[in-house]
Amino acid sequence: xxxxxxxxxxGAGPGDxxxxxxxxxxxxxxxxxxxxxxxxxxxxxxxxxxxCEKINAGKRAKDHVLTQDETNALIVEKSKLGKSVxxxxxxxxxxxxxxxxxxxxxxxAGVPFEIVPGISSTIAGPAYAGIPVTHRDxxxxxxxxxxxxxxxxxxxxxxxxxxxxxxxxxxxxxGVGRLREITGSFIQHGAAAETPIALTQWxxxxxxxxxxxxxxDIADIAESVNFGSPAVAVIGDVVRERExxxxxxxxxxxxxxxxxxxxxxxxxxxxxxxRDLGADVIELPTIRIEHPEDxxxxxxxxxxxxxxxxxxxxxxxxxxxxxxxxxxxxPDARSLGNPRIAAIGAGTAQKIREYRFAVDLIPxxxxxxxxxxxxxxxxxxxxxxxxIKAAESRxxxxxxxxxxxxxxxxxxxxxxxxxxxxxxxxxxxLAEQGADLITFTSSSTADHFFALGLxxxxxxxxxxxxxxxxxxxxxxxxPPAFEANPHDIPGFVSAIVRHFKKR
Length: 503
Description:
By secondary structure, this protein is α/β, with parallel strands linked by helices. It folds into four domains: 6-119, Tetrapyrrole methylase, N-terminal domain (Cobalt-precorrin-4 Transmethylase, domain 1), CATH 3.40.1010; 123-249, Tetrapyrrole methylase, C-terminal domain (Methyltransferase, Cobalt-precorrin-4 Transmethylase, Domain 2, 2-Layer Sandwich); 257-286 and 419-502, 3-Layer(aba) Sandwich (Rossmann fold), CATH 3.40.50; 292-417, Rossmann fold. The chain has helices at 22-30, 68-80, 99-108, 121-128, 160-165, 179-188, 218-224, 242-245, 267-276, 295-303, 316-329, 346-354, 368-375, 396-403, 426-433, 443-451, 467-475, 489-502; strands at 6-11, 33-36, 53-56, 84-89, 113-116, 142-146, 169-173, 196-201, 209-214, 231-235, 257-260, 280-283, 287-290, 310-313, 340-343, 384-390, 407-418, 437-440, 461-464, 482-483.
């Protein structure tokens, strides 16, 4: 008997990944089919499991647009095939998201469904702009309406006379294209022309932009700065609170678009740190990590790791690959024996500690040459060492340890290959919107970025995590504007902040 399908109508929130509910994340992770809108954060697609069918039902650039009827038919059809279908909708599916229509179609077709609410941009957008939609000093009522109606109705159901004279705050979405008409209707029906109004575009994201004016002049202001959708508008005296509590747009990297080129699995740490500081982050992984070509040799070396005097790790990737293989063979951590452990830097050391192993040696400078300098202070002659490395690693560590008299075996734990997928449309976004900074955390990310053949954005700088990466950037004719010190992610983030502070 085939399992019954189900459709989840999921709110993707207003844009900030941190505002997505735990239930929404769970649904995405287990989905067989993901039908998403253009206004849902594309980074959410990375939570989908391998093999999940991803279908864009929304409009983005010149992509095909599914009509609402086509979308309804699609989610019914996929669910009836016994699949777990997630209909991902920006904000909340039931607040001007046509979720009610889709739920009715599913119900009529006899398809089980679940509604997963999301944080709506109608409240999150103003909050991120420093505007409380309710405030005891200003209002006790909140009215939410849409500036876009069903064009097939042939008439407007918006009662501007009632809206204009209703007390409290008014919030509307999907109205930038009709802004002059909407504000004019408010004034025509009795609203004071000097009533404050604010519009926030791409609310809760690093691309957020807010303009403030009055009902009389906001349309002119919007046109003068080429203000576009998607945006949420707030009308009322609560807009005045923005002067005091505008918190999000005052972060040190707000308004800066920064590209992260790390692998998809590793990008999160750097991306989150930059987003927390207000940056608009584009994740454009240029490499991905794959198994070594000789997997059997790798497995055998891991199995015999307890026979070595030293284990030398030069990347978090190597640590993760090593211990994944180790615990696949040995259920007891004590099977590793008692080798001493060296890490090339703080990030690698932290990854080792996550597996509850101590680190015996970390260099002052987080580079291969620094690690060799650190070993010079140890007595390693005739000691056996297992270097867990990437296939493309430089020979500096091997040659240096051999010169010190150590007996070194190279354990290739992984290899880096070009990333060929771009599920979030990062390349197109970089080409269309440009960037202020492109970050490189290794020579391989730099090499593979330039191999993409993308035009370097005008006015954009390059940032390097360390001297080896800087050397690679210079080789490509793009000297870095700065180099992190220390050469780890926290040091990199601090250097980025200092860079923009100087500017």
